[in-house]
Automatic annotation (TrEMBL):
Region ranges (Disordered): 105-150
Record's protein name: Uncharacterized protein
Top-rank lineage group of the source organism: Bacteria
Biased composition (Polar residues): 118-130
Extent of Low complexity compositional bias: 131-149
Lineage: Bacteria, Pseudomonadati, Pseudomonadota, Gammaproteobacteria, Alteromonadales
Originating organism: Shewanella halifaxensis (strain HAW-EB4)
Length: 297
């Protein structure tokens, strides 16, 4: 995208060309970058600065409408859409889903590893286990719907990559009644587990959720990720930044800009009660997945 509309002042929207926007002061860029949208379909947009190896600055969006003139189909987008189709089919074919946090991202696996993992993806027969602790933080309808622990159920297994891509491409997972296991003991209704950054709220019991959405940018010290979906949310990464960069190929700040992310963590207020913090559960790098953006949105 060569242009984006800035809604920082909603009464006075400004259309910036990428050439004009990148010439703004660093302070203005940081102030405006979370208020950008596509001029064609009004989808939430992001700004990526020029890279050290010569890639030009650009605007992009992970929220284009399918008929948007700025939307450029690609192999990556087609794969993400296929993931959404597969997850929607999973909702029909399976009684529950187990999140496999140990599953390596596709880009980091060898062919042999992928073939082995494919065999593990087939739905497995497993006894469902109820958890009084997690049922207590679910809705009353969830408690009423709890099944006996001796009922055999079809439980599919999926990694974070496919789950994130499906959510970004509009799968029905986040609104479904599907039971989702975060390990062999604890389960949640999908509609209570998956939360977009824009809807993140501190939980009374400190119970974790699967938070997902788009990253706007990271601060210069690489301490905080700032979601594009909400200016009120911050995600601390100072304790995991190096393994995070290594695992997902995030070589410079630009690589975070416009990336999508899902993580298992808890949401709480900062001391001043003016910002919501989403903390990765146990700072476990396996419980987070980041999908880098393409060069063009």
């Amino acid at each position: 995208m060569l242009d984006a509309i800035c809604l920082f002042d909603e009464s006075n929207p400004i259309t910036y060309s990428i050439f004009k926007f990148q010439k703004l002061s660093d302070a203005d860029i940081e102030k405006y970058r979370q208020a950008l949208m596509c001029p064609a379909c009004a989808g939430k947009a992001y700004y990526r600065k020029a890279s050290k190896d010569g890639k030009a600055a650009c605007f992009g969006s992970r929220y284009h409408q399918a008929d948007c003139r700025e939307f450029k189909p690609s192999a990556a987008k087609e794969r993400e859409e296929q993931h959404a189709i597969e997850v929607n089919q999973l909702l029909v074919d399976s009684d529950a889903m187990m999140i496999d946090f140990s599953r390596q991202p596709r880009s980091l696996k060898s062919r042999a590893e992928r073939e082995t993992q494919t065999q593990k993806q087939a739905p497995i027969q497993k006894q469902a286990q109820t958890s009084p602790e997690l049922l207590s933080v679910s809705s009353s309808s969830d408690r009423v719907a709890a099944h006996s622990s001796n009922v055999e159920k079809r439980i599919a297994s999926e990694g974070l990559e496919k789950i994130l891509h499906s959510l970004m491409r509009g799968s029905e997972l986040a609104e479904s009644e599907l039971w989702v296991y975060t390990d062999e003991k604890y389960r949640w209704r999908a509609k209570n587990l998956f939360v977009n950054f824009a809807d993140a709220e501190p939980t009374e019991t400190g119970a974790p959720r699967m938070y997902w959405g788009t990253i706007s940018h990271v601060d210069k010290e690489l301490f905080w990720l700032n979601p594009a979906d909400s200016k009120e949310v911050g995600i601390p990464i100072d304790k995991i930044v190096e393994p995070l960069k290594l695992r997902f190929g995030l070589d410079e700040r630009r690589d975070f800009e416009g990336a999508t992310m899902i993580l298992f963590g808890k949401c709480f207020w900062n001391k001043a009660k003016n910002r919501k913090i989403i903390q990765l559960w146990g700072n476990d790098i396996n419980r987070i997945f980041i999908s880098k953006p393409e060069e063009e949105g």
